[in-house]
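User: Here's a protein and a ligand (zinc ion). What would the complex look like?
Assistant: Let me lay out the input and then the predicted complex.
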Amino acid sequence: MSVDYTSSSGHHGKAAKRNLPKAILRGLRHRCPQCGTGSVFARYLKIADICGHCGEELHHHQADDAPPYFTIFIVGHIIIPLVFLVETTWHPAMWIHMVTWLPLAVLLTLTLLPMVKGAVVGLQWALRMHGFEYSALCTPKSPAQGR
Ligand SMILES: [Zn+2]
């Protein structure tokens, strides 16, 4: 049975369900949630307007503050227990804490932030949030027109 996505009234029909875990995992790997091949990023944290491989519109995302929030949450839950463990076990000098945990926290944050942002975009895409609702069903338009 074929599905007609456009009716005569101009409304879209029910769209196919998207795989949420797969889209999140692809985002974690910085990949497009639709094809898993193209990059979801144009630059370090700048989401590409469209996927360079499959052309899926990615500019619909509204990740906003969610990626930094989740990243701070994750980094804090990794670093703080380690700080307490090292302090209670070996009692190192304060300068050793400073040269260990500060760079580690920065490195972890800069590594996790794009992964988490990709995952959030994947989640929004899979749940058809914001403009992702009909993006795969509509005729592609230039990103500048979509704003
Ligand atoms: Zn793609």
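Summary: The chain has three helices and no strands.
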